[in-house]
Design a protein that fits this description.
The chain is an alpha+beta fold. The protein has helices spanning 3-6, 63-77, 79-82, and strands at residues 21-29, 35-43, 86-97, 106-117, 120-129, 132-144. Strand 1 and strand 2 form a beta hairpin.
């Protein structure tokens, strides 16, 4: 999926849409034949708002932004369910930040849905640069219909 196709799934837009490309993995399907895994990527250009001041002379992607990137990639898995809803984070567990992500890096994201309870979905993700794991975490989020 291109960023334009991702915009049909996610409500995020310029400056907050943090996935350049995404691909549903057809090698892992649930009981309904829907993919439970995806891959995504985002290339850090160096001019992003979140790098300004983090850190002077050594711009580094903040951990919370890395989690947002993984969360957005996870939401792509729910493409068929997210229509008419907004995916809201409800939790982040066991986040580990192993290596910094810097301008010029492409964060390769792998996510998998682990379970679902009604409108709540649970996933795990990891982000790597050049094959080296930089971040990993478990996520939960809810699909919420906007109030009219």
């Amino acid at each position: 999926m291109t960023q334009e196709e991702i915009k049909k799934i996610l409500p995020h837009r310029d400056k907050m849409l943090l996935v350049d490309e995404a691909e549903l993995c057809q090698d892992s399907l649930d009981e309904n034949g829907q993919p439970t895994r995806c891959r995504g990527s985002y290339t850090i250009r160096g001019d992003e708002w979140f790098l300004q001041g983090h850190f002077p002379g050594k711009p580094t992607v903040p951990g919370v932004v890395l989690c947002e990137m993984m969360g957005q990639a996870c939401a792509v898995i729910l493409a068929d369910k997210v229509q008419g809803s907004i995916p809201y984070f409800t939790g982040i567990k066991n986040a580990k930040f192993k290596h910094p992500v810097l301008p010029g890096d492409t964060l390769e994201i792998e996510c998998a849905m682990t379970k679902n309870r009604g409108a709540f979905y649970f996933a795990e993700g990891k982000g790597s640069v050049n094959g080296k794991v930089c971040v990993q975490a478990e996520f939960s989020f809810a699909l919420v219909k906007p109030e009219e």
